[in-house]
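Retro notes (design track)

What went well: tokenization of the new backbones is finally stable.
What didn't: we kept losing track of which sequence belonged to which structure.
Fix going forward: every design gets posted as structure first, then sequence, in one message. First example under the new rule, 517 residues:
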């Protein structure tokens, strides 16, 4: 009997030696005359266990990990294919607490299937949403997404259905769907995992969006540092098109939707939607002034739906299971689930998909296991390099857009970067300003010049040069950037700076802190 063995092809696993482990398993099986089927699946998101080797059994998939190349012979000696005992045996993978405590709705296939196998995708409820969508009126699809409560997962949290309704109502000879996959925030990788580990989910979501608003062309703008994502997306697009799920006359419905991948420009600011549009059009990635809104005059001057990977990837689930199913997860106006990414000084870094309402403390300790260093966690930055630094006193804040806004923070893209008590928060604040210097598109003065002056002021604070005056100056500068910048690059850079000032004043010379600007 042929036994199926799974070794991830996710880039995190590859960086930890998954290709070498897979090759060693295939070689060892052949040398021992054992017939196996080797499947390169996605990652389960438990990165401390990569490369994670799984074996299919009647009871479920048994895990072993992390398994390095030199340990493969020992696996076979222990008869791991038939449930033999081994020091790195993990038991049933689905029973590992880190996974079992999650609500995996969008990531239900991630780590289970061969990412580019359409057959695998269809066998795990793939394209159920699209098949339902092609039987519905466009307005009904938009209403279903609206009723689900889905909001933009890229950070802005704008209601997805409202954006779609605007594009649906716009009159134009051509409309577009643009997926913002320029995932540049520190500590974030959920977009990458979708594109590498379940690309058909994104393709299906974009196809449904196209049918819903009358768009026939779509673009996925992928971060240039994601070569595996680009390769998997292109292969999956070809497979979907060959099987009639993409292109002309989709599933015999008479609907058309074409999709192509565009490699990003390697600039953080191109994660801003209008700078992304400029880049797709072949121009320098610089922010556009609004109005007009991209929903009315977007890509090539035409009405355009712009959503990020996680937003669009939620759509197949909403269409297949219904808006009521989806909105039953979450709290308040934050409905559904969010794939949260744990990074920084944590024992167990990886991806956790939970319904909105889980607290920072639960994520950091119940899932993350506390700090890798063993020291107390002093701060966590949520939402990327423009997100606020949150102290231990705010760790019980639930993941909810409004709850985070109430404490001057932002959920952003769901990335968490943890720091232990050795961190110097004044230097972290300087890093935030310097990041803006490096990544500003330069179009507006508050961002371009303000961040440069901000670094100079931070250097004086750190060097203890007239700190009280410099701190007042820094706050005034942050106020100018918040109110005067053209986009989130400039008006959010003060978030981490002010949060560091307000929550960790001792790192700035123990000066009395005024109310945040």
């Amino acid at each position: 009997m042929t036994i199926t063995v799974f070794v991830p092809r996710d880039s995190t696993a590859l960086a930890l030696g998954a290709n070498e482990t897979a090759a060693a398993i295939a070689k060892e099986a052949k040398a021992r005359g054992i017939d196996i089927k080797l499947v390169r699946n996605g990652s389960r998101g438990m990165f401390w266990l990569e490369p994670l080797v799984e074996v299919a059994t009647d009871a479920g998939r048994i895990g072993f990990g992390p398994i390095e190349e030199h340990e493969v012979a020992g696996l076979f000696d222990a008869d791991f294919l038939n449930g033999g005992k081994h020091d790195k045996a993990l038991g049933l993978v689905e029973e590992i607490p880190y996974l079992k405590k999650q609500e995996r709705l969008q990531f239900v296939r991630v780590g289970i299937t061969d990412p580019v196998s359409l057959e695998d995708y269809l066998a795990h409820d793939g394209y159920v949403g699209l098949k339902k969508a092609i039987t519905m009126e466009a307005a009904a699809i938009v209403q279903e997404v609206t009723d689900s409560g889905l909001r933009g997962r890229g950070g802005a949290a704008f209601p997805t259905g409202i954006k779609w309704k605007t594009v649906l109502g716009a009159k134009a000879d051509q409309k577009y769907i643009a997926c913002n996959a320029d995932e540049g925030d520190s500590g974030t990788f959920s977009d990458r995992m979708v594109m590498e580990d379940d690309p058909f989910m994104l393709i299906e979501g974009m196809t449904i969006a196209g049918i819903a608003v009358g768009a026939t062309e779509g673009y996925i703008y992928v971060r240039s540092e994601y070569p595996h994502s680009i390769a998997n997306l292109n292969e999956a697009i070809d497979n979907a098109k060959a099987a009639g799920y993409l292109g002309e006359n989709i599933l015999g419905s008479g609907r058309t939707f074409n999709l192509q991948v565009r490699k990003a420009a390697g600039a953080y600011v191109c994660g801003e939607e209008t700078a992304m549009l400029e880049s797709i059009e072949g121009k320098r990635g610089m922010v556009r002034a609004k109005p007009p809104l991209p929903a009315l005059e977007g890509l090539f001057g035409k009405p355009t739906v712009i959503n990020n990977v996680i937003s669009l990837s939620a759509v197949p689930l909403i269409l297949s299971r219904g808006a009521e199913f989806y909105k039953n997860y979450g709290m308040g106006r934050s409905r559904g689930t969010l794939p949260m990414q744990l990074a920084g000084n944590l024992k167990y870094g990886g991806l956790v998909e939970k319904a909105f309402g889980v607290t920072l403390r639960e994520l950091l300790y119940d899932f993350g296991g506390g700090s890798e260093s063993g020291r107390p966690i002093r701060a966590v930055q949520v939402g990327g390099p423009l997100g606020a630094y949150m102290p231990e006193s705010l760790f019980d804040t639930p993941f909810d857009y409004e709850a985070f806004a109430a404490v001057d923070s932002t959920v952003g893209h769901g990335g968490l970067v943890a720091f232990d008590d050795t961190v110097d928060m004044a230097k972290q604040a300087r890093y935030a300003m310097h990041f803006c210097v490096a990544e500003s598109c330069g179009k507006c003065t508050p961002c371009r010049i303000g961040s440069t002056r901000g670094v100079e002021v931070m250097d004086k604070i750190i060097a203890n040069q007239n700190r009280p005056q410099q701190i007042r100056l820094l706050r005034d500068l942050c106020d100018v950037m918040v109110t005067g910048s053209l986009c989130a690059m400039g008006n959010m850079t003060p978030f981490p700076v002010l949060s560091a000032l307000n929550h960790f004043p001792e790192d700035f010379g123990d000066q009395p802190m005024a109310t945040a600007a």
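Added context from the reviewer: The first strand starts at residue 3 and ends at 6.
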